[in-house]
Amino acid sequence: MPALPFTMSTSSSASATALVKHRIASLQHLDLRRYSIDELVARVRELLEGQSLRCLTLATGRLLYRGILGEALPERLADVSYPPAAAVRHDQRANRAGEPMFYCSATWHPPFFEARVQPGDGIVISRWQTRQPLRILSFGYADTCADDPHSDREKALRQALAQLPAETRDLATFLTSTFTKTVADDNRHHYRLSIAVAEACQLGQSFDGLLYPSAAMASPAHNLALHPNCLDAGKLTLDYVEHLRVHQVSPDTDVLDVRSLDIAHCAGPDGYLHWQGRPGNWVLREGSTAADCWLQNGVWRCAHRPGAGSEAAAG
User: Fold this and answer.
1) Are residues 236 and 254 in the same domain?
2) pLDDT per position as a tens digit, 1-51
3) Burial class (CB in 10 A: 0-12, 13-18, 19+), 1
4) How far is CA 177 from CA 63, 173, 185, 215, 248, in A?
5) Does residue 93 belong to any structural domain of this protein?
6) Predicted TM-score of the model (pTM)
7) Same domain, 169 and 293
């Protein structure tokens, strides 16, 4: 009976898909005020058991960006890294109160919109570089969207979702929507479910972090929640810190007009940042090496400058 194995496989697959849909519906209808994070973690683990997600490997040398709204210059490296436990007074998207997480983005522009900057605001943007590969868990389709400020976020996400196998779309949609839900002071209980998802994913143990699309931008953008172990182990180190002033912002088109005020390239052994007292000077170095060149007797001569970078950098 050659058709029998196929019939059984199809039936089993349909049954498993129906079970996932049922568990998703059950989670969606919960009054999160009535459930603890621990209770929700158990339910999310049950949902994820046996399901296929995506594990991305961020290679060494990848650049990540973090933003902190404020006028004061941070004094220490610790001020731009993940916050101390005592400073985490409320539940956040991927962590409970008292348990810090390092939130960052894969490109420069999302931290401005995540901080909801307005004209006149000051913001500190820090750039970090991976020194070791990072294991990043993705919910299945956000990572297939180009991080492009000129594209339409919802359209790009729909197209990426359509490329997934039909049996994984419901789960991918649920996990992504859970992590991108808009949460305000009066509905902070919604963070309990996204925290439960993060804890079920065992950040800091099985994975270094999670990738999810920014909900604050009109275009697709990649946000990451990284476990502090990444920084403690030296997998991620500071590249520079820049203090900027926002002059104009267009949320509908993700266009920014900002001015650099000051820049620090490093911290000393004591952990204090070395602010230079001058604006950052942006130099395009993508895909290239830098050299000093001069005109001598009508001929241009070039000499490679040691230490030149291979990415866009602030100088």
Assistant:
1) yes
2) 333 333 334 556 778 889 999 999 999 999 999 999 999 999 999 999 988
3) exposed
4) 26, 6, 19, 9, 29
5) yes
6) 0.84
7) no
